[in-house]
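Problem 12. The chain below contains 409 residues. Write out its predicted structure in token notation.
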Amino acid sequence: MHAWPASEVPALPGQGRDLRIHDTATGGPVTLEPGPVARIYVCGITPYDATHMGHAATYNAFDLVQRVWLDTERQVHYVQNVTDVDDPLLERAQRDGVDWVGLAEQETALFREDMTALRMLPPKHYIGAVEAIPGIVPLVERLRDLGAAYELDGDVYFSVESDPHFGTVSGLDAAAMRLLSAERGGDPDRPGKKNPLDPMLWMAAREGEPSWDGGSLGRGRPGWHIECVAIALDHLGMGFDVQGGGSDLAFPHHEMGASHAQVLTGEFPMATAYVHAGMVGLDGEKMSKSRGNLVFVSQLRRDGVDPAAVRLALHSRHYRSDWEWTDGVLQDAVDRLGRWRAAVSRPDGPSAEALVDEIREALADDLDAPAALAAVDRWAARQEADGGTDTGAPGLVSRAVDALLGVAL
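Solution.
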């Protein structure tokens, strides 16, 4: 599966700071100091109803992570998956009377278009669950051979008790985990499971549903969590720098995935930091497919909204915050974009070296994009009020906003 084209990242004078970011597993900040190549895995979409603002906010956050690392003169090895076979996708295809493969391809293509328009940097490896199945099957077989997996009516489950570190990603107690498992694709009430929290590794073939050869596992398809584990281990290995996604993935998805990987390799932890973006709401409720209250990037683009304004709207809220999308949030972003473009269109202006440092400091401090926007606002206000004599300042501001915030002025 191919990703989307990369926009050029302008070079800036000087060098950025190491990223200090909130780690869900420890509940506090960690300073990431990768080697020459920083490694990040961000969980991708299940391709239906793409790309809504919740998706966009999540990928915006991890695009900033990449840009901070690139500004420290590191390379970035970014991996993202596409869950192109799963119950919600199959259910949507059946509801709409369409082929599930075609639906997945259509929505994935739309996602690529939206990411391109928003100038999100693409992953180096963009891997679908279906294409990952040959690598998934041996992992499930190995977990079974290690005594960490068991069969139940043809399905194969992972035993969470096989990992002594289970629970350290989300920090939740068993009761909270059970509630979230039921809400987020698990089956804690299924009779015969060793532990209600045990997640499925391999689902035996069901009539009328797609299935693949699973070797000694029989025909079937992979569970949700082992998909990302197989892709991450194959392309990044253990101990990579950031495991990212929305806050609703901390449990069960990232918790279960970490346990799978840790049992498979005997190493801990799977990732140095588990980083989660907040949820985006609309009209007082979380924006979600089940509620049908989605705002789509593609619809905004069709309505003539500049993708750069959408990007600024996303930057205006801290990535870890739960926030609400409104017409006012978008209008503020449109107005800000206009002010910034007017400011950099002049032949000279106030010196901008300090501004570049302010943006770098803000983003290195847990991706504080609102603080970075405020810094550019102050420079633009000085430009409007007093102007300046630095002929290189407008160009430097334009390059910095592009390189560090992904917004083309």
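Discussion. The chain has two domains: 20-146+163-176+226-286, 305-405. Students who got a different answer should revisit the alignment rule from Section 12.3.
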